[in-house]
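@channel anyone free to eyeball this complex?
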Amino acid sequence: MTDRQPLHKNNRMIFTVLVAIMAGITLLYVLILREQLLPGWLITHKALIFVLWYLDATLLIIFAFILIRYLVKLILERRSKTYASRLRTRVALSLTGMILVPVLYLVFIAIDLILHANSVPRDLKSVAEASRNLAQAYTAREAGEIRELGHTLTLQLKGKSPQTWPDVVSEYMSGSDLTAVEVYQDRRPLFSNVRPPMDNQGSFQIPGSFLKEIDQYGEGILVEKKGQVWLIRIGLTLPQKQALMEIVISRSMDGTLGEDRATVLNTAQALDQLRLEQTTLTMTRILIFVLLTLGMTFGALWYGTTLSRYLTQPLKDLLEATRRVASGDFQVHVEEAPSDEWHTLISQFNEMTGELQQTRSLLLKERTKLQQILEITPVGIVAMDSTGKVNNANPAARAILNLPLETQNLQDLPQEIKDLLHSRDESTHGHSKSSLTLDGAYLEIGILPLPDGGKLLVVEDLTQLVRAQKMATWQEAAKQIAHELKNPLTPIKLSAERLLLRSRSSEPDESLIEGTCNTILQEVDHLKGLVDGFLQYARLPSPTPRLLDIQEIFRNLADLYKDIKPGVSILMDCEPGVVILADPQLLRQALTNLLDNAVEACSAGQTVTLQGNQSKEGVILRIADEGRGIPEKDREHIFRPYFSTKGRGSGLGLSIVHRVIQDHGGTIHVENNKPRGTVFTITMPLVELPG
Amino acid sequence: MRKIFAFVFLCLIFSASSRGEEVRVEHFELSVEGRVISASISITPLLPQEVVERIRGGLPAVFTYWFTLREHSSRWRDRKVMKTRVSVSVKYDPVRVEYQVTYRQKGELVDTRIFHHWQEAVNALTKLDRWEIFTVPSDALDEMLYIEAWVHLLPRTKWLFIPDDIKTDEVSSSHFVVYD
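replying in thread with the prediction:
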């Protein structure tokens, strides 16, 4: 997403720049410490301090600009809630602060040390001042004495012929401690008298400017070293009418006084110079330290910002990519760092988004397929969340339940469905299956709990199927009825034909007529029985349920059938207190039919068992015999009307049982008993007793 | 933002430089002989205290006389024909009680003088008498010329660390023409 320089390249560049800055400043500092290495003009013209000042000012402005710009940028980033801006701010400020705080602290200490390091100690200053005063006083006293000697000599020379002056001078010098007397006329040497430690070669070396000054100011003082001897020379004018004459009287300083005087004055001057240049030196060093601090600060800020950018940029990219992934864009790809810890993280993120993209494509494909199936399936499916909000309803559900197109409200469901859902909420949380009739349609409703607490309503419109089944049942019944009706009609017809033939004969056969008529009557009775059974099946009343104790019902039935077939015993295994909600007459009729069949199927020595108990599914009633059993092929037909395996009877008994149980909301099924016989299992709904 | 910083920076630079008011050029006169121009110039002999302290403290002090030969133009800017500088440096030797004054022109040593009186040294520093400064080049002959001069005495710092100078204002000579 963002191009980034490798860290090692950044490091190399940062390191190089920092080292260059540090080396430059260190070199500068060394040169300042050893000022004699610097050219004089750089010191005296304060060029260095100017250069440093402008460097400092420039760096300070650049640094302030960069700092303010960076801070403004950080603030703007944080306000715009740019990814990782908070982390970037913290990293940059932490790194900069970690470097800046100790550096600033050290610089303040260093500046304080510099301020005090260059100041001349007061005691030393006083000593130097006093020494210089002493040296100057000594010089002045010497000069005064020489001047006095000079004036005395001048007075002696005054009024005498210049030709006699050398003798006068020689005589005068012999009575004094003067080293030399030199006389000039119009600044040109006239004569001299020199005594050791000077020699004649050292005479007449007075600079012209000194003689000029003597002429201008009347006198002058000159201190100079001749060989190993320091001389104090006083120049005076000799007033002459014809010419301008100058006389220079010299006296050597005693012993090492000359050298001591020079040392004192040079030292005092050095201290003076140090005092005069103290401000410049101090400020130069402070400016260097400020320059050093600014350089380090600049480097710290640069390094801090670069490192924070390097550390946070991949995070920013990852966060941006995560946001895009969260918003559904799985095609995002983050630029991978060349080689560091981010590389692993980013490459794994890219792999993850790739896999997510593949999974999403697969899911979309599956979802589309499922959607298509839901669109075309005739089974209605309604998905609801835990609050009862309808999340989804396929077209079949909308058509069956007559729902609005974009329904999301439970209230849009038909009242019967809502009642069913409500009753299921109160009774059970497991799967359930119910049937109901809605606007003439026969619906089978399945309710499945979903993992998120919601429900899945599966609605199947069985109207057509039920109609077809009814039609088939009635066709079968008609066929059976026709078959049953046809069987007695044949003997009736044959009997009637025989009677007709006999009536046409001349000899009536009384026994034949009686037998034939009896046959006809028997078959008509049979026909009547068939019609009565059919009417009974057709006219089964609606159940009027009340609470019934199973144990009591079974006991009454067992008492009724215990001696009806010799050798067949009735056993009762019934859990006490088990009750069901049923119509007593209809239930008794159904159970009587089943018990009647069971007893009939058994032979002597066999047993019929009546069992009753309660389970999670409901109340279970079992009637088991040890008789001949029902063939496998006949089991699925035994509840159909007029189906009989006995070859006699109406074939409506089990159909009536099935219908009675169904009308009570129960189920019945048949299976083999072990080791032999048949078991009919009836499951009736549970009854919740108050309290 | 950048403009503001530039403005502040320029303000700092301009505030650092100031016009000299402590010393001024008292006398400036030219003499022309052929194509050679000589200048006589003197500045206030009463030197600023920090200059005096510096000289008497034995630190070298350099007075630099700047001369610029310009050709007058009726257009908006006069042409600079030549430029030169004369440096007069002084160093006091407290042991010998003498002032060594050195004259350099364009960096080349011209003369060295020794003085034993303060006033002589001050005179040497503050005055140039008939000093040959320019030889008018051919392209400036017959043109209206003049010379600008100012003297730089000492660099110093203002407010402890801001660079500053002790110097005179610039003075101009009257116009003149050098004929071939």
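from a first look: Residues 7-117+269-324 of chain A form one domain.
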